[in-house]
Amino acid sequence: MPVLIIETDRTQEIQDAYYAQGRKVIDEVNLLRKKAGLYLIKERENKIITNAKVSNHTGGNAIDICPEIPGKPGFPWWNAPQELWEKLGQLAETCGLDWCAGGYGQTWGKGWDNPHFELMA
Description:
alpha+beta; single chain; 3 helices; 15% strand
């Protein structure tokens, strides 16, 4: 199964910028994103993307993995069929990761963050 590593360890500055999205006006969000070394976003992209002020990504205990679009190397398949996400989740858990969505997640069971995996506690 071809997959892409989307994000691993992140700084608290990046987490702060992500958390601001959808909660602050676009100018404030982009100021935080610029400070964190992220690309600037447009107003239509200013939507909530995380509910965590503190993330297991900060410290390197989480990773976001996404299936690759078949025939399009390097392109994440965000809307891959749920069955594919479940297969990825099962494979990751055999490697000692907790899939935090889709019913397999033992730690959080959020059910909405398919790409997110964490080290088992």
